[in-house]
Amino acid sequence: MMVTNYLGGILILVFVISFMDGWTRPCRNSLVPRLVSSNQIVKANSLLSSINQIVQILGWSLGGILIVYIGEIYVLLITICLLALSTISLFFIKDPTNDTTVNQDAESKWKRFSFGWINIWNNKILRVVTLMDLFETFAGSIWIGAIILVFVKKVLYKGEEWWGFINASNITGMLIGSVVAWFLARWINKKLIVSLFLSSLSVCILTFIFALNNNPWISLGIVLLMGIPYQLRDISQQTIFQKNVEYSILPIVFSAHGILIYMVFGLSVLIMGLLSDLFGVKTVYLTAGTLYGISALLTALVKSKVNIEDNIKIKSTL
């Protein structure tokens, strides 16, 4: 009984941490266009993404080493200290924009809740990009641990350690992709839709190759390469939102977008797991490749001559 209560408390803490962490992404992404000029947004997103990937690589490797040498309690204490430093550092960020105070009555609260989804739907570019992201999120569930592990064992005929190798290769590829995006920032900034199409198409092709390949070393190489267009696509999508939404409304729109993504991801894990059980894990990856292909084709719905810089931004009407 005592153990059950202990585990229950841990699960509640994990839920609270995840709940609060869900606030950070839309807030962070909304701050970028406030703090940098329009032509520097791609570089800023690339830099943030690079730092995130570096921290993930170091976190996974150093975390395991520290647990072995100093124990999990001290690692948790170090984590708490780092989170505290991160929170304190927020006080040094000066927001140069002046947001207006909104009415907090019941009607306004409902308007704020639905405002993000309504305006994503009403804005052609954001609607298509969000639809692309939903297809890609559904396909992206192929990289959850359970499905990768089945692929490693049933297709590559390797042990659990190759699950770790593939994850490390994927993170390294995304780090490289962030660096590539930094150097191509000027081109991406001018050709966001083209960048979105090419990166989505590349992920589609590489996913099909990954599904049909049986060599573990080639699989590692494919996953490494796949991380590059993954990052270019994500940075392009994020930049499109930041360039098409008014500063004061951006957190609401990002939050609405995030809710849709999380709901689709949860559904996709269930469906992809079912497909894997019924038709085999290769079918799951082929399905994902098809979804990535549909996502790439959706860019045709946005006219190639659309200039993101000239597109009218969503205005606050709250």
Question: Any overview of this molecule?
Answer:
Mean pLDDT is 79; it is low at 304-312 and 314-318. Helix 5 (124-140) packs parallel to helix 11 (250-279) and helix 7 (161-183) packs across helix 10. The chain contains 12 helices and no strands. The termini are far apart. The protein has 318 residues and is mainly alpha-helical.
Provide keyphrases for this structure:
mainly alpha, 0% strand, disordered C terminus, globular, 318 residues
Mean pLDDT, to the nearest integer, reads: 79
β-strand percent reads under 5%
Summed up, the helix count is: 12
Structural class: mainly alpha
User: Helix proportion of residues, in percent?
Assistant: over 70%
- Spans with pLDDT under 50 lasting ≥5 residues? 304-312, 314-318
| Topology pattern, helix = H, strand = E | HHHHHHHHHHHH
Please summarize the sheet with the most strands.
Answer: none
The coarse silhouette is: globular
Number of strands: 0
| CA gyration radius, whole angstroms | 21 Å
Amino- and carboxy-terminal Cα gap: 50 Å
Topology:
Layout: H1 2-35, H2 41-70, H3 72-89, H4 106-122, H5 124-140, H6 145-154, H7 161-183, H8 185-190, H9 192-212, H10 216-244, H11 250-279, H12 281-298
Helix pairs in contact: 1-11, 2-3, 2-7, 2-10, 4-5, 4-11, 5-10, 5-11, 5-12, 7-10, 9-10, 9-12, 11-12
Can you summarize this structure?
The chain is built from twelve helices and no strands. It is mainly α and 318 residues long.
